[in-house]
Amino acid sequence: MMANKNILLLQGPMGPFFHRFARELKQKKMRVVKVNFNAGDWLFFPRGRSYKGKLENWVEYLDDLVVKEKIDRVFLFGDERPYHKVAIDKVFSPRNIDVYVFEEGYLRPSFITLEKGGVNGNSQIPKKASYYKNRLFSLDSSKLERPAVKWQFFMSMLFSVIYGLAKFTGHFAYSNYQHHRCLNPLKQGALWLWGWVFKKPYYYCSERKSYRVLMSKFKKNYFFVPLQVHNDYQITHSPYDDVRDFIEEIVASFVANAPKESALVFKHHPMDRPYRNYKKFLCQLERQYHLEGRLFYIHDQHLPTLLRNARATIVINSTVGLSSLHHNVPVLVRGSAVYDVVGLTSQASLNDFWTDQGEVDMELYRSYRLFLLSKNQGHGSFYKKGKNDSPTGIHWPTNIDLYNARTTSAEKSRTLLRSPLNKPVVIQVGASGTD
Question: Where do the domains of the chain lie?
Answer without folding.
Answer: 6-152+378-430
